[in-house]
Amino acid sequence: MKACSLQFIILLPLLLVANDTWDHSVPNIAYLHRTTSEPWDIHVLIIDLKSPAVSIKSILAQDQVWGREVVSAMAHRHGAVAAINGDFCSLNNGIPQGITVMDNEIVIAPKYRTALGFTQNFSALIGMWTDRWNWYGKVLDEQGNEHDLVMMNLDVNQDWLCLFTDKYGHATPGSSLSGNVVEVLVNSDSLVQAIHHNQPGINIPANYYVLTGREGAANWLLNNIALNERLTLELTTLPDWRNLWESVSGGPRIVQNGQYYADPMVVFPGGEDFTMSYKNAYYNTRQPRSAAGTTINGDTLIFVVVDGRQTSSVGMTLQELASVLIEFGAVDALQFDSGGSATFFFNNSVCNSPADGSERAVANALAVFSSERYLNIAPEATVIAYSSELLDHPVTKLIDGNRSRNSGKWADTVSDTSWVELDLGIIKPVTHFQLFHAFYSGDPDYLNTKEYSIYTRTDTSQAWTEDFHVLNDEFQDRDNLSVYTVPNNIRYVRLEIIQSNHLDYEDILRQPEFEIYVLDSNWVTVHSEARSVVDYHLFQNYPNPFNPITTIQYELPHRSEVQITIYDLLGRKVTTLVTETQDAGHKSIIWDATNDHRQPVGAGVYFCQIRVHDPDAIGAGNFIKTRKIVLLK
Questions:
Q1: Residue 622, C-beta contacts closer than 8 angstroms, at least 6 positions apart
Q2: Which of these, 156, 240, 225, 236, lies nearest to 191 by C-alpha position?
Q3: For 9-31, what is each residue's pLDDT tens digit?
């Protein structure tokens, strides 16, 4: 474990003496444990979201909506290297109370409260996905008659029509609700399979859903819905949830535009979906806290957990919590469920001291994965030649995950083609390069690279080899990722920016905007010691979306018969990647977007499925898991 201990003065806002211990044992993730004289016991995690080593996932207790589970158990089961508790939940069934998106599938509809979402490229966004108390869902019958959907996998109040999916993990409410109740079971083809009137709840089969209506909504179902009728669901949020890959809710928002955001102390819709008594009792008192924030360009995620109700740590007000997040670069932040629920998991253990004396079972968690052994070495590279006369600051290293705005230019517009040449020091196995938009001074178009090339060589006596030439027909927000099929041994790199999209902007590339990744030889040792394989897993592929290759990782706790198959959106087999018996351990395989005949396949949505059979297992030794993957062209 790489750790350092520093003692210095900080303003939080009081003058305090703080003792900081950093842990950089997981690449692209920095953990800080800070104790202060207040007393405060603070845990901070800084996560580089632009690293291909890192991915984020919203995980549910017991992998379903209904129920509770401690954060460490969720993290261990999914193989996460870090996790923080998530949303507030219902007291009687543990259901998260705000928008939840998992693998680009909406699981719980939004209420009027702040949430943290992630795009497919894991850029982080904080906001509300509805501008009213509930969302904009509706159901339509074949005649075009429609009815609002008030909730999704949440409570059903009087006259409400609500939606339940197979993620609910429990029988629907049915006749346990008072009054007139109608439930409609619908299959994966949107055809009505059954209509239940004042009957017990339904256990929802995979890929089915249930419409549950009370009183007036129940009558609408009886009068409009028939067996074998095809229904239409419109599941709409503002902005559109379909732009999210993962999301977890919380609230309230505590940082906006880099400053403390005091949520209006009024009942919604002027403020968030929290009661006045909750606000008065909770906002300005010192409590155990759990929160997450994002930097100006959404490429760095910051977790903060502060212990409270203890002699060693008194907890924080929301304003004090906001000051910690702002210190580490957050321009937006929200609180998660706090108090006894506040839990900080990192590198195989719970690092904080929960207020209850042990972990409290919660509804969900936000988990961090670092399953690829990639390491960004661009900060260590030496600038050996460049197109400008002088560089203000040739190289400024990435420190503790923070991207500095004053890191200096690596290229400018002195010549017709801006370029920079770098020396990696020794020949290294480079896996890929990445350029991204830095949102400098809040401007998303600061790096407007329409066309660029990357050249490499192992010796200065060799001619440059153009490994990648990228031409974007129009400006795109998504990152430019250039990936080798297998690691390429390289020492020298030349980056040329050929043309930008907007001529009124300079072709300026700042150091943190160009990343060079190599295989980290220390990663396997660090992680094999930290976490042994105890269960079957199929991880989300990375990158995702991808073009043209992606890495698929999985884990086997025992020697097993393994089959990994790619299917298209219609369920037709595209290719079989693995079909053999394999020893236990962490595995990975690359798919290059070709079929069984080595022909390229078209852009679109595909499914990766793993089927495992353990012949020595007692009982059912089978495991099946499917992940949605997206190919861009």
A1: 611, 612, 613, 614
A2: 225
A3: 344 444 467 799 988 778 778 89
Partners of residue 590 on adjacent β-strands: 551
HEC readout, 69-84: ECHHHHHHHHCCCEEE
Q: Do domains 137-234 and 374-519 have the same CATH topology?
A: yes
* Spatial separation of the C-alpha atoms in residues 81 and 26, rounded to whole Å: 8
**CA-based end-to-end distance of the chain:** 41
Buried b (16+ CB within 10 A) or exposed e, 287-301: bbbbbbbbbbbbbbb
Cα–Cα distances (Å) from 144 to 233, 235, 293, 589, in that order, read 11, 16, 43, 47
DSSP 8-state class, residue 166: G
Task: Quote the tokens at residue 5.
Answer: 């201990």
Query: Topology of domain 532-631, per CATH?
Result: Immunoglobulin-like (2.60.40)
Q: What is the amino acid identity at position 319?
A: Q
DSSP 530: H
The C-alpha atoms of residue 196 and residue 202 are separated, in whole angstroms, by 9
Q: How many CA atoms lie within 13 A of 344 on its CB side?
A: 25
Structure tokens at 609: 């499925």
What is the architecture, at CATH level 2, of domain 137-234? Sandwich (2.60)
Contact indicator for 438, 512 with CB cutoff of 8 Å: yes
Range of weakest confidence among 150-159, 311-320, 469-478: 469-478
> 232: closest CA among 140, 137, 105?
140
In 3D, which of 554, 629, 539 has the Cα closest to residue 592?
Answer: 629
Residue (of 631, 629, 624) closest to 538 by Cα position: 624
pLDDT tens by residue, 50-103: 777 788 999 999 999 999 999 999 999 888 999 999 999 988 889 999 999 998
- Helix, strand or coil, per DSSP, at residue 133: coil
Give the span between the Cα atoms of 490 and 154, in whole angstroms: 54
Q: What are the backbone dihedrals phi and psi of residue 27, each rounded to the nearest 5 degrees, phi first? A: -55, 140
Query: What CATH number labels 374-519?
Result: 2.60.120.260
Cα separation, 195 vs 213, whole angstroms: 11
Q: What is the pTM of this model?
A: 0.72
Q: Whole-angstrom Cα distance, residue 382 to residue 364?
A: 44
**CA geometry: angle 117, 120, 122, nearest 5 deg:** 60
Return the domain boundaries, the chain. 3-117+244-369, 137-234, 374-519, 532-631
59 to each of 38, 46, 48, 139, 410, how far by Cα in Å? 34, 20, 20, 28, 40
